[in-house]
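User: My collaborator sent over this chain with a note saying "see what the structure looks like." That's all I know about it. Can you take a look?
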Amino acid sequence: MNKLDDYVTRRGQTSPAFAQAVKQEDLNLDAAVAVRQLRDSLQLSQRAFAQQIGKPQSTVARIENGSMNVSTKLLAEIASATGQRLQIQFIPVHE
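Assistant: Without extra context I'll predict from the sequence alone. Here is the result:
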């Protein structure tokens, strides 16, 4: 583990709110990467992707930069609008 991981672990043990915020940011980053990879695979600009999914370009930008808490409903709408199927899975945590 590096110093940052150590800090996050220690701080998360003493602050449940901090631990929850870190988990949310991890989820936001996962969604950001997945949406960006999907958009890239479709070879679309943010604007064209936004038009395809029926959302403002600013929403796509916020998802992709990880600043938006993306709901499973929104991810399902993105999947449907792009001919994809949303899959959610549980993955064991190895600490």
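A starting point for your reply to your collaborator: The mean pLDDT is 93.
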